[in-house]
Specification:
Helices cover 68% and strands 1% of the residues. By secondary structure, it is an all-alpha fold. The chain has 2 domains: 10-17 and 28-449, Amino acid/polyamine transporter I (Up-down Bundle), CATH 1.20.1740; 462-550, EF-hand (Recoverin, domain 1), CATH 1.10.238.10. A hairpin with a 2-residue loop joins strand 1 (276-277) and strand 2.
């Protein structure tokens, strides 16, 4: 790597957190955070996946797979909580990765996450097909699933444009009703049915053993994707330093209890064979469970709630997905029109409409179930990179002084290392589909970056570059660190020079051992033209001379 001359460093962009845009109104409290997060999860994870997971594991012990998946999600949830309090802005994982690793990886991550979330939201709209047959049988009318899905999509896009307050009002009763209903059915089953409590833990419950449990955990991992989706709308959350970590961790705890508890009772109450057909697993397991517990009327109610809850999942999914192109446009990686905010509703309406159109295409022409399953491999890889980002940012925080999270992950870096190992294990167990899914997302990101983003984005001295340079070129590392410190200390209205007080602040970071008398004399030595300020070239050259003489 060729060293950068002091004057050449000006080509790089210094992007402190204070310069992040804050154009969206903060309206959401911790209860809203939990509701939106849960509504992004309590769809296919409960209403479709249990029977498929049982078939995948080869036994009814699927509750353990949900617990194992939650343990792998936990480090990523903790890391995202820290990152979100340092960067409480729209874009979530994209922002954290772009600020840490640069525009190229940021483009890949942003578009990959956007595709992942919109495809899963589209799958949620199609997924209620498994429950619509109940109403077709009841009313005797055939329902065109695609038209129904597109009509719901139009409504969802409209609600998203009207703003997160409208979404909260729609989702609160849906989430409360769905969770309450499922809990009541479980209690009803325990009180009225002959429960075989040993079935989910007895011989053969876990199929092929721990390898089967881990493989099924990778399969149900996507059930928890919504637990950190709230970070994508961090710019709309009140008191983000408290509400984001609390909301993420509370929703993870609640969702784990619901997934594992309901799955356990479902398997203990109903013969697992009832969740299968001659062609494979049933995709309406909650209907089967509710019908067995309370009869047809209760089964109809369960099917109705499934349709509504899957719609709610899509509602939260398109909201989170649309924030990725919005955030990328602010970084000049996508056309700036996607950055526009609606004058009345204060929402990124063009990004929402674009996401809705992409979902419509997905519903009409793509095998959404297969594509969404492939994309989950990319999502696990994002969790790995997020854990790595916290390690890199902590290491580079001296030079990149903007990284000041108000909430820090405990036991650092234990959780991050465990998250990287756990995520890597899940990707390995998922096999070639995970690699193919991630590969497709990477290709899309690379094409977008080199065809548009590279020509519009400004080069940036990223924390990843700082950490990498620290180990490969010590002189270069020191030079770049001083450049970053200069810009961190400079007043934002006059970023091209340092006053004496700003210089004292910079030296407190670079050389805290220097006393005040030494620092004051050094300032006047560097200020060769005696104009009372020093520019970046004077600062870097003065630092070179000072530290070369002291060695």
């Amino acid at each position: 790597m060729q060293p950068i001359k002091p004057s050449a460093l000006i080509d790089f962009v210094y992007k402190p957190i204070e310069l992040f845009s804050d154009t969206l109104e903060r309206k959401l409290g911790v209860v809203s955070v939990v509701i939106i997060s849960l509504s992004a999860m309590l769809g296919s994870g409960l209403f479709v996946l249990p029977a498929l997971a049982m078939l995948d594991m080869g036994g009814p012990g699927i509750w353990l797979a949900y617990v194992v998946a939650a343990l792998v999600v936990l480090p990523g949830a903790i890391s995202k909580s820290e990152l979100a309090t340092a960067m409480p802005t729209s874009g979530g994982s994209y922002v954290y990765i772009e600020r840490t690793f640069g525009a190229l990886l940021g483009t890949i991550a942003g578009l990959g996450l956007w595709a992942t979330f919109l495809l899963k939201a589209a799958f949620a709209l199609i997924g209620f097909k498994a429950y619509l047959w109940v109403f077709e049988d009841l009313i005797g009318i055939s329902i065109n699933v695609e038209i129904a899905a597109l009509a719901l999509l139009v409504a969802i896009v409209g609600v998203n444009i009207m703003g997160v307050e409208k979404i909260k009002k729609v989702q609160a009763p849906i989430v409360t009703g769905a969770v309450g209903f499922l809990v009541i059915i479980c209690i009803w089953a325990v009180l009225t049915m002959e429960m075989d409590w040993s079935r989910p833990t007895g011989p053969g419950a876990y199929g092929g053993g721990w390898e089967a449990v881990a493989g099924t955990a990778a399969f149900v991992f996507v059930s928890y994707s919504g637990v950190t989706k709230i970070a994508a709308i961090a710019e709309e959350i009140k008191r983000p330093n408290k509400n984001i970590p609390s909301g993420i961790l509370i929703s993870l705890f609640i969702s784990t209890l619901l997934y594992a508890g309901i799955a356990y009772i479902m398997m203990a109450a109903v013969d697992p064979a009832s969740y299968e057909t001659a062609s494979g697993a049933r995709e309406d397991p909650i209907y089967v469970f509710a019908n067995a517990v309370g009869g047809k009327i209760v089964g109809y109610i369960a099917a109705g709630l499934a349709v509504i809850t899957m719609t709610s999942m899509a509602l939260a999914g398109i909201m989170a997905a649309s924030r990725y192109p919005f955030a990328m446009a602010r970084d000049n990686l996508l056309p700036e029109a996607l950055e526009n905010v609606h004058s009345q509703f204060q929402t990124p309406h063009l990004a929402i409409v674009g996401t809705g159109l992409a979902m419509a295409v997905s519903i009409l022409v793509l095998p959404v179930h297969d594509v969404a399953k492939l994309a989950s491999g990319f999502q696990i890889m994002i969790f790995i990179i997020i854990n790595l980002a916290v390690i890199v940012l902590r290491r580079a925080s001296v030079a990149h002084s903007w990284y000041t999270p108000e909430w820090k992950s405990p036991l650092f870096p234990f959780f991050q290392i465990m998250g990287i190992i756990g995520g890597g294990t899940l990707v390995y167990l998922m096999g070639e589909k995970a690699i193919i899914g991630a590969g497709v997302c990477c290709v899309i990101g690379l094409v977008t970056y080199y065809s548009y983003g590279k020509g519009h984005a400004h080069p940036m001295l990223t924390p990843w570059r700082t950490v990498r340079t620290e180990f490969t070129n010590v002189d270069q590392y020191e030079r770049e660190k001083r450049w970053l410190v200069f810009h961190a200390a400079a007043d934002k209205t006059h970023p091209d020079h340092l006053t004496e007080s700003e210089f004292v602040h910079a030296m407190g970071i670079i050389a805290p051992r220097f006393d005040a008398f030494h620092v004051r004399n050094l300032f006047h030595e560097i200020d060769a033209d005696d104009n009372g300020v020093i520019d970046v070239d004077e600062f870097l050259e003065g630092m070179e001379e000072e530290f070369s003489e002291s060695e």
